[in-house]
Amino acid sequence: MTDDRPPHPRPGMSPVDHAELALLLEVASTPKPGNVDRHRDHDDLRFEHFLAGAVGARPGLRAAADPDRPLGDAFERAVRGMSQQDGDNTQFGCLLLLVPLVRTAATDRLSPAGVAGVVDATTVDDAVSFYRAFEHVDVAVDDPPPDAAALDVRRGADAEPAIRERALTLADVMALSADRDGNAAEWAGGFERTFAAAETVLDDEGPVTDRLARAFLDLLAERPDSLVATEHGRDVAEAASRRAAAVRNDLDAAEELSERFRAEGINPGTTADLTAAAAFVALERGVPV
After folding, report:
1. Which residue, among 206, 207, 243, has the nearest Cα to 225 in the 3D structure?
2. How many CA atoms lie within 13 A of 30 on its CB side?
3. Angle ∠(72,78,81) on CA atoms, nearest 5
4. Rounded Cα gap, residues 194 and 183, in angstroms
5. Which residue, 199, 265, 256, is CA-closest to 232?
6. pLDDT by residue (tens digit) across 94-133?
């Protein structure tokens, strides 16, 4: 993987098109143990909700492609549109990763260095919009440290005075959570795992949905999922990664693991977010679909 690898856009498709397609391909890929896919629904969250969420997010993704629109506003708009289906939160984390990637791709800088520049340019207003996005859906998050209760994202717009008092940009907010949230870690680390996973998708063979399923298993095997850690504890998250590692080269075995994870309520949602982001980068670089 190199930072200066040139993109190879699909003729006639924009970064916004690729972002929407990435959301659709992520949920269509199977098996992704513990997650909704085209073969498996959850009791209160179904495949159709993810399709509707991807379509609803498009206006926000379009705003992300406009360098004159605030990035945080684009994210809040994408989440608001995504939420207009009956399943509540389908793709909050996916959009958190896709919005800066779309901005980067739209300015012909799709590389770790390029997206790091987009992140570094975020503002306090972007951070306020990020917090407002939590008012649209229910997002599973860890409790903040005791000295940061005023910055609990679950406060939504009520956290604005604390954000402004501390002059926190959206990049600053992500850095505060990077040690315990996989998506925030991508923001703070130049989207390292996203670009690496995109390379494996590009180098793989077969239908892109199979490639993404394998990329999901690789990502989960490589590092415990932060959503699983939030919902079930670190030990369960580490065990889930070991179980994924045992089937990472066998999609048939991963099908069986999918059923076990579903029965146990293990949902590696952060890994799915990374898979959607990797799908976007791979699409921008010409993976065949």
Report:
1. 243
2. 13
3. 140
4. 10
5. 265
6. 999 999 999 999 998 899 999 999 999 999 999 999 999 9
